[in-house]
Amino acid sequence: MPTITSVSPTTGPSSGGNSVVITGTGFGGPTTVRFGGTATTFTLDSPTQITAIAPPGTGTVQVTVSNADGTSNGVPYTYTSVVQVPVVSAVIPNSGPATGGTVVLILGSSFTGVTSVNFGATPALLFFALSSNLIIAIAPPGTGTVPVTVTNSAGTSAGVPFTYVSVPTLSSVTPNTGPVTGGTTVTISGTGFTGATGVSFGLLPAVSFTVVSDTQITAVTPAGIGSVPVTVTGPGGIASGVFFTYS
Asked: Model confidence over 131-167: pLDDT tens digits?
């Protein structure tokens, strides 16, 4: 009857496909090699050695050799999950305010066992791995363009860019007065105007506006009364601090 003295290696990936050397005695004749209840392909190297290809499996199973003389003792073989280095393919959105707080979806693969998500050198304020290919994270405060990376026990992914956008600032409105009927074309000066999505005079939006540069916007005032705050809304937030007076 066959006898197994050792199996090498004693562990392998759950996907199978790796070579396993089985050492023992009495391996001659027509032979069957099983990992648990699953028969697999093998090469009979000699009456004392078999090289088998592990089939897919889970957990710990007994490796046995059978032939016309009977079935051998079982030797444990353990299937393990192989953790891959994460891959980040996209970050949505890929920009947010410098103050942080942007909720970001990170798409990719091999997110099993994620231990950290970083925006540059700064950890995310919070993150959850919703699946092996999707993470939701909250961006920390930051500046400039930084790589978003994901780390697990196998390593750290390559980075995908995330750009911090400054909160707009306002320094002046010229002219700062106009008729209550509106229609005054004004120049708004400040910083962080790139990508601005709105300009308001008090509670009312500008009739129209044009972002001339990161530091200048031209806008047409709506109708209004009194002295009202001028605000600019951009990707980085809302800026105010200057006033326009209707007269």
From this structure: 989 999 999 999 999 999 999 988 999 999 999 988 8
Helices (H), the chain: none
| 178-205 confidence digits (pLDDT tens) | 999 999 999 999 998 988 999 999 999 9
Q: Give the H/E segment covering residue 180.
A: none
Say which amino acid occupies 220: V
What are the phi and psi torsion angles at 85 (to 5°)?
Answer: -65, 135
Give the whole-angstrom CA distance, residue 221 versus residue 89: 44
